[in-house]
């Protein structure tokens, strides 16, 4: 098979691992900077160009779209879809998961466990917004934040009010969520591929840090999931329409709650924590489902 990895940086761990895993399985792998792609949008011969040449005869693509590049990145993915190329994650599912508010609303509609979450526009409604999630302490999140950036723990009512007013003064969109104290600064990342959890790790935040992101000094170890946690992760990925997803859970007193569903989950932390060849399993899934092209909509889960 001929597979393109849509990534801005070929030196990233996840990009390198996917390329190597594909080559080890005998596939022709190519890393393509999607920001350097341009498109001919036409009905008779839609084309994606890269370095002045058309990208032709690809059987599949693996989108590794940065959060800040979602609009253009998904446009490139969508163009490949118009050309009949199989995508590990489809453009619509990527866009859906990147909108944190929309993601939570979809999960809520499916009855999936979530932390109590509030959203409002006007600063005049701050008091009601804080009461909606049960008061302080609470977590305030920028909708556009990633890797723990733009996430604040407000331990008192006044602190929460001040932070919300400051964010709203900058005219950015925020969510407020209940603080799951019993999680003790830890979360669980479940890697879902083709409707199955193939790996899971527990991430523990650094001392004094309520965020568990490995980029912020946290550490990770393999974890055994409960049946309910496994089911929640699978249902969450399915609700978002993602074939490959990182689903982040917290263990609360009322069961697992979903914090985020990621369409381009990093592979380094979970491969090193679990020893599982996650990249190889992603390539296996693509090889199983990408051919023949005419059957691309009949995905085998």
From TrEMBL:
GO cellular component, one term: ribosome
Single annotated GO MF: ligase activity
Residues involved in Mg(2+) 1 binding: 248, 260
Enzyme class: ligase
Cofactor: Mg(2+); Mn(2+)
Cofactor binding note from Swiss-Prot or TrEMBL: Binds 2 magnesium or manganese ions per subunit.
Keywords: ATP-binding, Ligase, Magnesium, Manganese, Metal-binding, Nucleotide-binding, Protein biosynthesis, Ribonucleoprotein, Ribosomal protein
InterPro entries (alphabetical): ATP-grasp, ATP-grasp_RimK-type, ATP_grasp_subdomain_1, RimK, Rimk_N, Rp_bS6_RimK/Lys_biosynth_LsyX
Residues that coordinate or bind Mg(2+) 2: 260, 262
Binding-site residues for Mn(2+) 1, renumbered to this chain: 248, 260
Enzyme Commission no: 6.3.2.-
Ranges where the ATP-grasp domain occurs: 104-287
PANTHER family in the cross-refs: RIBOSOMAL PROTEIN BS6--L-GLUTAMATE LIGASE (PTHR21621:SF7), RIBOSOMAL PROTEIN S6 MODIFICATION PROTEIN (PTHR21621)
Family, as annotated: Belongs to the RimK family.
Name this protein carries in UniProt: Probable alpha-L-glutamate ligase
Organism: Spirulina subsalsa FACHB-351
Top-level taxonomy: Bacteria, Bacillati, Cyanobacteriota, Cyanophyceae, Spirulinales
């Amino acid at each position: 098979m001929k597979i393109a990895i849509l990534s801005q940086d070929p030196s990233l761990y996840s990009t390198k691992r996917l390329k190597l895993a594909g080559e080890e399985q005998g596939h022709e792998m190519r890393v393509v900077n999607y920001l350097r792609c341009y498109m001919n949008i036409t009905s008779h011969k839609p084309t994606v160009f890269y370095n002045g040449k058309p990208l032709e005869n690809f059987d599949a693509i693996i989108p590794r779209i940065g959060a800040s590049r979602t609009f253009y990145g998904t446009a490139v993915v969508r163009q490949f879809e118009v050309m009949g190329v199989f995508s590990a994650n489809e453009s619509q599912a990527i866009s859906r998961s990147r909108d944190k508010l929309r993601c939570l609303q979809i999960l809520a509609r499916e009855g999936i466990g979530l932390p109590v979450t509030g959203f409002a526009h006007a600063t005049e409604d701050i008091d009601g917004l804080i009461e909606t999630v049960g008061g302080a302490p609470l977590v305030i999140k920028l909708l556009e934040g990633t890797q723990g950036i733009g996430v604040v723990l407000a331990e008192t009512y006044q602190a929460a009010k001040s932070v919300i007013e400051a964010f709203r003064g900058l005219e950015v969109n925020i969510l407020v969520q209940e603080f799951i104290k019993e999680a003790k600064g830890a979360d669980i990342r479940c890697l879902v591929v083709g409707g199955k959890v193939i790996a899971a790790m527990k991430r523990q935040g650094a001392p004094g840090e309520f965020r568990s992101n490995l980029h912020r000094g946290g550490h990770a170890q393999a974890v055994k999931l409960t049946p309910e946690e496994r089911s929640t992760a699978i249902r969450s990925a399915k609700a978002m329409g993602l074939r490959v997803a990182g689903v982040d859970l917290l263990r609360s007193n009322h069961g697992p709650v979903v914090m985020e569903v990621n369409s381009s989950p990093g592979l380094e932390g979970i491969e090193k924590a679990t020893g599982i060849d996650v990249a190889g399993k992603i390539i296996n899934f693509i090889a199983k489902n990408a051919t023949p092209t005419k059957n691309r909509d009949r995905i085998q889960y």
